[in-house]
Amino acid sequence: MFIMNNIYCASAIDKCQQTLDVVADNVTFMSNKFCKWVENSLKLAGNIKLKFKKNFKWLQEKIRICPVCGGINVDENGSRERLIIFSTWKEYFKIQTYVCKDKHENGESQFFETNIRDIVPKNSIYSHEFIETVKDHNTHVHAPLRVTADFLNRNDEVSVSHQTIENMIFKIENPNPIPSKSSGKYTFDSLWCKAHGGWNSFYLCMNDAANGNVVFDEIYSKETAANLDEYFETIAPYLPEEKYITVDLNPKYKEPLEKYGF
Q1: Greatest C-alpha distance within the chain
Q2: Which of its termini does the chain have fewer beta carbons within 10 Å around, N or C?
Q3: Bigger pLDDT: 212 or 104?
Q4: For the whole model, what pTM was predicted?
């Protein structure tokens, strides 16, 4: 009986090991397949490359260029971890950060990180590919939100609520409109505003000084130099080449305004 029990246990262990081997092979295959897909996608994503280092997947710039001065006297300077969710997979990436050693107007070095906006929107964990999948599923199938969520959650790696999907669809169908014509003379202000139940946001608004119409407005969680730069970068292409603006004396406004031709 003792021998039979040993044989039975050995057989059970062998079957478990075979199952684990199959699972491991599938995980390796899916991981390699996903990495290849990311690499192919990055070929279309501008100045971004995927690098494997210290058991992490790193997103780095192919050519290191300072976004402020355009200089190339740039060194690597640490990283930060970022979760990005795709329609069939999620992955933690190390986002390479850099320092421009050239001195800028403020006399300090400029710190920045790899620009991954071609892959994922700012302050979001959901990739453009994921958002497009939601959009296509909603446009062509017109499925209920919970059905769309179940469709995306069919893979254990992905988890998204129907409320998140609703927010995505609302943003897709109601983009922030930008007027096609304006006078070229503007006023700008950043106001502390109450949103989502608390005084924790900033309302950035540009008005046409000639008629008082809102030209472009947006809400940010913080009034940082990066958010100001993103705001003016978004609106600048829609404005006349010759443009004037009135702002208060916040020194943070000077650099992005001059950068985008005000």
Answers
A1: 97
A2: N
A3: 212
A4: 0.49
